[in-house]
Write a structure and sequence with these properties.
single chain, 385 residues, alpha/beta, Aspartate Aminotransferase, domain 1, Aspartate Aminotransferase, domain 2, two-stranded parallel ribbon, 37% helix, globular
Length: 385
């Protein structure tokens, strides 16, 4: 059986966690702070749980420079898929325009799934789900209830390099009804680079990539949106044509905010893991997420350099017609023999996938680069990455 030190994990999620964090979590799971209780047994309404909530909010605020006067940090359950529904239900019920639309920038699998959920909830005639990429974006010609995009598409291997220029100028202000609210799914690149939070109405991210383990979803919501409650007569009228428009109470941002994320039972242990991850990032990078961005860029550059050095062997994001499944399997098998795990591509696209999450150490990337070079010298058949 391999030891933890012998394994380098590049899986798409749940992602690896720092060993020091796991060791502290293991202790807390048996006897938290010498209380004689497991953290999994402590009430979510206890002072201990409230401190963990406060510590997690504090870590997020420091690392992302969240303007707490304008934005609220919420912890929910349901993962990113739950937020696919929540953002539609939250925004659409606050609108009163007869020609209501919601805009989705479909750049890959996850934004497509989000747009499909919107169509299921309110009907496809209200959903503009244009397939675009960053260079194709134009300034919206009309105001929508919101514009939605996925910041990093893990299945398709594409990421917005920065905030879309076409969506600039939506930071909120005195007339909230005349802005276009920007909603972003940052599940897979959350905490990997600085974010100008004030440009967004809603940011959400599942914890299991860069923040911790499954069980919680972070939502950073502009406070002014929490107050946009439509008249009851409008809600009743809208419900007549859109029967699914009222959100479940556990997805209602205003309710969660009012109850400090404790309306229902919060998975305190999952939140504790997030707290420790945040504290480790604050300690490593002196409270600035820019340091993590630099490290991630260096790791990515090393991997791409190795791939680009062997163009006859590795095709990055190729047309599916040029893929060679046998060589891909050989690459994965050889990698696993060297303790390099989690490299098999998503079931819908195949190929090889390297997930460069925060907790993947530089040493693991060095081992992968060595295998990329070694494999290339032993084959001349293309492999898809």
């Amino acid at each position: 059986m391999p030891s933890r030190e012998e394994v380098s994990y590049f899986g798409a999620g749940p992602a690896p966690l720092p060993t020091a964090v796991l060791q502290e979590c293991a202790s807390a799971l048996v006897n938290f702070n010498n209380t004689g209780l497991s953290l999994a047994e402590i009430s979510h309404r206890s002072p201990t749980a409230n401190k963990i909530i406060a510590d997690t909010k504090d870590g997020l605020t420091k690392l992302l420079d969240i303007p707490t006067d304008t934005h609220e940090i919420l912890f929910l359950q349901g993962g990113g898929s739950g937020e696919f529904s929540a953002v539609v239900l939250e925004r659409v019920r606050s609108e009163v325009e007869s020609e209501l639309k919601v805009d989705y920038l479909v750049t890959g699998s996850w934004s497509l799934k989000a747009s499909q959920e919107a169509s299921r909830l309110i009907g496809s005639k209200y959903v503009n789900d244009e397939s675009v990429w960053a260079g194709q974006l134009t300034t919206p010609k009309r105001r929508a209830a919101f514009v939605y995009f996925c910041d990093n598409e893990t299945v398709d291997g594409v990421e917005f390099p920065s905030f879309p220029a076409a969506l600039e100028g939506n930071e909120g202000g005195v007339d909230e009804f005349n802005e276009t609210v920007v909603v972003a799914d940052m599940s897979s690149n959350f905490l990997s680079r600085p974010v100008d939070v004030k440009k967004y109405g809603v940011i959400f991210a599942g914890a299991q990539k860069n923040l911790g383990i499954p069980g919680i979803t972070v939502a950073i919501v502009r406070k002014s949106l929490l107050a946009l409650v439509p008249p009851p007569t409008f809600v009743h009228a809208l419900a007549g044509s859109l029967p699914n428009i009222t959100p479940p109470i556990v997805l209602d941002f205003a309710t969660i905010a009012k109850n400090n994320s404790l309306y229902n039972t919060l998975p305190v242990f999952s939140l504790y893991v997030a707290t420790l991850v945040l504290q480790s990032l604050v300690h490593r990078f002196a409270g600035s997420i820019a340091g993590q961005q630099q490290e991630a860029a260096a790791k990515a550059a090393a991997i791409y350099a190795a791939l680009d050095a062997h163009p006859a062997v590795y095709h990055v994001l190729p047309d599916r017609a040029v893929r060679n499944a046998d060589r891909e399997a050989a690459f994965v098998k050889g990698a696993e023999a060297r303790g390099l795990l989690g490299l098999k591509g998503h079931r819908s696209v195949g190929g090889i996938r390297v997930s460069n999450y925060n907790a993947v150490p530089v040493a693991a990337v060095d081992k992968l680069v060595a295998w990329i070079n070694e494999f290339a010298t032993s084959t001349s058949t293309p492999t898809s990455v």
